[in-house]
From TrEMBL:
Residues 2-134 form the EVE domain. Gene3D superfamilies: ph1033 like domains (3.10.590.10). InterPro entries: 5hmC_binding, EVE_domain, PUA-like_sf, THYN1-like_EVE. It comes from Prosthecomicrobium pneumaticum. This is Putative RNA-binding protein with PUA-like domain.
Amino acid sequence: MAHWLFKSEPDSFSFDDLVGKGEAGQEWDGVRNYQARNNMRAMKVGERGFFYHSNEGKAVVGIVEVIAAAHPDSTDTTGQWECVDLKAVMPVERPVTLAAAKAEPRLAGMALTGNSRLSVQPVTDAEWAVVCEMAGVAP
């Protein structure tokens, strides 16, 4: 099963906002990058990802789960953008900052440490295990 990382500016939509949506979750809408869209197209229901606060905090703060496969983004009027739906699973015990991820040699190849601008990124099984270890959660 694949793993992912979803980035959001906490002043626009935070992990706590997703927690507040409960089991119904939230459309991961507004993404306007082809690579990020294609990543969402590859996702399957039940796959998990990290919720990353960008700009402010710059840290992995929670675990999320894909609850709906890629479908048309309700905020798109052109018909070319898709999104998945996510729900919050749990906060991490210890937020994993971008600086900490970059300092961890086992994460040298992680998309986050090399292409921190991409809003929806794949995470390898090995990277998932390392970040979970750093965050104090079971992989």
